[in-house]
Amino acid sequence: MSPIVAALVFLSAFLHVSWNTLGKKGTPSAAFFLTASFASVIVLFPVLLILDFDFSIYWKVWIYLIVSGFFQAVYYTGLAGAYRTGEMSITYPLARALPVLFVPIVSFLLGSIEGLMLYSFLGMFIVFTGCLILPQATLRRLSFKEYFKVYTLFAVLAAVGTTGYTILDSNAMNIIRITSDSTIPGAIFYFTFQMIYVSIFLGLYILINKIEQKKLLEILKNEKLPTISAGLMVAAAYIIILICYPLVTNVSYVTAFRQISIPIGALTGIFFLKEKWSFPKILGVFIIFSGLLVVYL
User: Fold this and answer.
1) Which of 86, 90, 97, 181 has the fewest beta carbons under 10 Å from its own?
2) What is the reported pTM?
């Protein structure tokens, strides 16, 4: 991987941590992520028009888009709950790492386990170990209560959402690669419409939740700039990764290096958001990061 590609992937990881930090520092809510998602649509939809993308793609992709949009909405809702009730230095690594365990399990249940080697299972075991250590207050005595804290359960919900849209997105992008002349415009199309459906599902949730309605009004009144900035960062981080994929010999290099966001996210929570640090937290993040590198490399 060239230094330029490495720098681009690092920038994408930094942007990912940045929009998560804005979500944690501001008003963690479905309303926040609705506004951010809609902002990314406003930015990317004109790009599709400029690229003159052919919207008459295979019908099954639209089904994937709708269901994926639902899971993405679940992800944002879980992430908002995790940030509202817990520390980013714990919830961010958990939400990023747990899908590495969930995706192979769901894929296996669906009858597909292609591409998994022995070292992949070793890496997943290492990640699982790190996830067990991360929430603990001390290593002298493990407390199972830590796994059932509200923020931990919200992080698991976010990971479930990530698992759902990851599997659906993979299948949809395989279809787009076959039916579309260019992968990157197809991916931009997919992401843009995914954000449209995310906005619809989050909007429906907010319509029946008075607390979220109040938060939406509060965000539109006092937090428009950071929320819109988060939406732009979401779009930019995604597009940068799309640009990097064709520039490497193996996309797993990009996927692995993207995991640098996990220690960056944890350190951001500790030093920027002034969250408490502990030995289990630092050790857990290091073990998770190591396990992810084993899985992807």
Assistant:
1) 181
2) 0.89
